[in-house]
């Protein structure tokens, strides 16, 4: 017999099963009797922390990193824009990237307006009404176009991952869903 306790650290549940199950099959019961001669205590392996990854990234942080300030002067503040743009031309248009998502957890939209000088103006919102994923995509497009209008963009290239919205706006597909018809009309008006 051993004069000290052996701590068995393992991720495998079968070993825990052998040590903790009172009635076992004949073969496993023999193993348990043989192992009970030794003072073995089963301990499950703790989860491996992700600190190795964070330590690695912290050691290789960029020197020009500026931390984000989360101190906002007003919680009801929707957007703050500082515009120092020249007038865009047809050769160098503004760009709008949009995306919307709708699922059981919520509905959200986002758009990024990129100026001809490569300045980024992200906008995002949470929708407080039930909608389909295609409706969320249209809402995101509307938000991106409205942001472009507020910035007085003359020429705009629009990019999105919704084939339905893009093809309907190009006129390649017709809009059959009655819920999407008002969105298409609104986007057509905003595009003029």
Automatic annotation (TrEMBL):
Gene3D superfamilies: Ribonuclease H-like superfamily/Ribonuclease H
Pfam family, one: RVT_3
Superkingdom field: Eukaryota
Chain ranges of the RNase H type-1 domain: 90-192
Database matches in InterPro entries: RNaseH-like_sf, RNaseH_domain, RNaseH_sf
Protein name: Uncharacterized protein LOC108660662
Source organism (scientific name): Theobroma cacao
One annotated GO molecular function: RNA-DNA hybrid ribonuclease activity
